[in-house]
Amino acid sequence: xxxxxxxxxxxxxxxxxxxxxxxxxxxxxxxxxxxxxxxxxxxxxxxxxxxxxxxxxxxxxxxxxxxxxxxxxxxxxxxxxxxxxxxxxxxxxxxxxxxxxxxxxxxxxxxxxxxxxxxxxxxxxxxxxxxxxxxxxxxxx
Length: 141
Description:
It is built from 3 helices and no strands. It has 141 residues and is mostly helical.
């Protein structure tokens, strides 16, 4: 066997080159498969995130609607006559106003009388009088 039969290279070199070429092709194939797998994984991750945020948005919207309806129901219950704490406060206020009307009106009248003695009516200045006081130079020195 001559060296020329092996393409001019010793047998060990030819054997060593053949697996390298196959390894390179396998690596390229693996890299393409890995890139496709990576893209598919990324697409699944994006779909999962979109679904998660869609579910969260729906949950928040539903909770908000329930809270709004609960508040509206409780306010409607409070606003009815004779029902709830708001009605009790209104009744108490009305009773106090009826009982205290005469006393409150007496206090108000006394306050007005006291304030009347301190009230002073101010009159605006006449612009002509101000010009006379300033003199011919217009008040500039």
